[in-house]
Design goal:
36% of the residues lie in helices and 21% in strands. By secondary structure, it is α/β, with parallel strands linked by helices.
Length: 267
């Protein structure tokens, strides 16, 4: 069933605007998913759609029909371009925006492969960095991404955008550092921490066994508890005058070294 909204004062439009604020997303247990690709990935990942807005002048007939196909029978709210621009979070949008119920996955719900590979990010605040790491995690086929003590909501619309929707394709868990450490140790997963004061270059480290790669915020790195309880502290050799790389780049370098050592076999 299609409905039309033409007023900026419509309660559904006001709700979408309010959800730009993290406190409102938390209160209503909803997030904003913008873009056909992102909505499609969320639906495929089992995320429940609350409200979907479409601006036909932006989507075009073909994409409009595809939206109907992936959400058959779901109420769809058509809005003119002027109204859509009020709820859109980004420029150059393709005219599709949904309010969706986020999944709050718990550690004990994560199903691991026989030889798991896990990415842990501690206290990373910038949505762009988290989104980039989620894209890397999707490309590497990791079992889970654990975001410890997050500096932002993992379903922040900016994370969804920068991850190109890959936040919906991986098992993403937000928890404390202590919870993550205990969970990894209980499952016999070796912990390798990236640290500037580490003694072993990453390419000389054995990543063939079950592994959790831990990265931290660029300005302060990981907390001491990770260093103390890790099985291996590793470093990426660098030869420039700047002593650190972007955290998402560091994660990609080490994860793909782990894949290389494992023969790039899909788990």
């Amino acid at each position: 069933m299609n409905h039309r909204i033409s007023s900026l004062q419509n309660p559904r439009i006001k709700q979408a605007v309010h959800l730009r604020k993290g406190v409102e997303r938390k209160k209503e247990n909803l997030t904003i998913v913008e873009g056909f690709r992102e909505v499609q990935l969320a639906v495929s990942g089992g995320f429940k759609t609350h409200t979907i807005f479409v601006s036909p002048s932006l989507t075009g007939e073909e994409k409009y029909a595809r939206i109907r196909k992936i959400l058959p029978g779901h109420p769809l709210y058509e809005v003119p371009r002027k109204v859509y621009s009020r709820i859109a979070c980004r420029e150059g949008s393709d005219g599709v925006l949904a309010l969706m119920v986020p999944k709050r996955l718990q550690l004990d719900q994560v199903e691991l492969s026989e030889n798991p590979l896990v990415l842990v990010a501690e206290s990373v605040e910038k949505p762009g960095n988290i989104g980039a790491m989620l894209r890397t995690a999707d490309a590497a086929g990791v079992d889970a991404v654990i975001v410890c003590d997050p500096g932002t909501d993992i379903y922040n619309p900016n994370i969804i955008r920068s991850s190109l929707g890959s936040v919906f394709t991986s098992n993403v868990v937000a928890c404390t550092t202590g919870e993550a450490l205990d969970w990894l140790k209980e499952r016999g997963i070796r912990v390798a921490v990236t640290a500037l004061n580490a003694s072993r270059p990453y390419h000389e480290t054995d990543f063939k066994l079950p592994l959790a790669l831990v990265v931290g915020a660029e300005d302060r790195g990981v907390s001491e508890i990770w260093i103390e309880r890790s099985d291996e502290n590793i470093i990426i050799p660098m030869f420039g005058k700047v002593d650190s790389m972007n955290v998402s780049v560091s994660a990609a370098v080490v994860l793909f070294e782990a894949l290389r050592q494992r023969g790039f076999k899909k788990r």
